[in-house]
Amino acid sequence: MDKNQLLQDVLAHLQADLEQASLAALSAHEAATHEENVAENKYDTLGLEAAYLASGQARRVEELRQTLITWRQLRPRPFDGVQGIELGALILLASEDGHEQWLFLGPQGASMKLQHAGQNIQVLSNAAPLGRLLLGKHPGDEITLPMGQRLQAFEVLTVD
User: Fold this and answer.
1) Which CATH code for domain 90-159?
2) Alpha-carbon dihedral sign for residues 116, 6, 159, 125
3) What domain of life is recorded for the organism (predicted)?
């Protein structure tokens, strides 16, 4: 699998999310400042509610903008056996029941599922519990992750 193409897929997904959030923020701002939403009395909170929504949408746009900047700086490199798993790694992980899953490890803010080269790939943040556990690991290493009341065991099968 081509990690650079996978990165481009993540960036395209984030850009689409940013555009959608920007439109939602613009719409919320227009609603908050529309003359029909001016309070007629102290109990009329429609304008206030619209302002809260607009504020939240604006924060979401800024978060997506920062995430996009961070992901654009990612440069996936080939696996280095000395360093172990690092950002930009493509990892094949097997659970204890034999279920295999591809993961693409990156910086925060882009948890998503993608289709790439006929495979389902989970994009995972290094801040996620599983992402933190994978950093520095090598093929053949096992990790355990608390899942509710029990521990779930995984084995790193391959890393690219």
Assistant:
1) 3.10.50.30
2) negative
3) Bacteria
